Amino acid sequence: MSDASDDAALPGSRVPLRELPKISLHDHLDGGLRPQTILELADAIGFEAPAPDAAALGAWFAAQSDSGSLVEYLRTFDVTLAVMQTAEGLTRVAREFVEDLHADGVIYGEIRWAPEQHLTRGLSLDAAVEAVQHGIDEAVDAVDAAGGFIRAGQLVSAMRQNDRGREIAELALRHRGHGVVGFDTAGPEAGFPPSRNRAAFDLLASEWMPVTIHAGEADGLDSIRSALLDGRALRLGHGVRIAEDVEISDGEAGLEVTMGPLAQWVRDRGIALETSPSSNLQTGAIAQWGSTMGDHPFDLLYQLGFRVTVNTDNRLMSATTLTRELALLADAFGYDITDVEAFQLNAAEVAFLPLEDREELVERIGAGFGR
């Protein structure tokens, strides 16, 4: 698939890639708005959007995000967050978010967002979570009524720089069983290690709440180490810089691969890497390896047996879908239907769901991929 087309079929299949069942584990609510929705919500609250129409606004987000800097990339969220400060806005955005996942073939999505960023117009933390869940439920019910299938859960994120981790952990626990399936920390990674929120992680561990942590994106091995030791993370948000602990050298029999103890631990324990290929290029997460998709360490990690998953991170900012991310990887590394199925099975097996629900996802993936 030389053009990385969303509607093409991969080698080994006649089913368009978009129609295959997929799992989305790393997808930010405030990074997945429809441009038209931003304009309409902005108009309702008197906020001036940076572009006058949906096409121009989508292009603005893509251009602003392609900076090579995570800090600059994150500034685009000032616009999306501005229109997500009311219950009505949050509900609409969440509903459309799930609708768009379903249209892309996603059968299970974990939607991460930071409620503490949505309080400027009077919402409480709990009301914000409830508003998002209302939108999720509306979309899931509509898909079910139309004969389709999708399930979704919230990942409540604490912004690591704000030192509200314990408070947000308590929020996540209050809504456990009512839509929240796990906890995350997000925001600027360098300078804000997971150890900074150790009290939150201690609480979550005592209550057996699963945790994923942004680590190995804008910072290196120390950040990953802290995510595992201080955060007890079951998954790594992005995690691509674990490849810094992998050494490739010329040996007598050809290339030799040596893994450090951290990489060995992550691989051998099946700790999932929530990679987001286009985003990783945009933010400079893989800059030390190159600047094209073919330079991404994804394939190296996959071939070495790491539990890699494929995600979008922020569909609006990266002008992407999960289908497109899979197509880009297949185009760069020659993957076929078997490889793409493996990525979905990896994701299903580490979803923050009970075993029975994960087994159902595995069955649906198998059926959809023709096994």
UniProtKB/TrEMBL annotation:
Cofactor: Zn(2+)
Enzyme class: hydrolase
EC number: 3.5.4.4
Transmembrane segments: none
UniProt entry tagged with the keyword Zinc: yes
Keyword line: Hydrolase, Metal-binding, Zinc
InterPro entries linked: A_deaminase_dom, Ado/ade_deaminase, Metal_Hydrolase
Keyword set includes Zinc: yes
The Adenosine deaminase domain, residue ranges: 21-365
Family classification: Belongs to the metallo-dependent hydrolases superfamily. Adenosine and AMP deaminases family.
Protein name (Swiss-Prot/TrEMBL): adenosine deaminase
Protein's organism: Pseudolysinimonas kribbensis
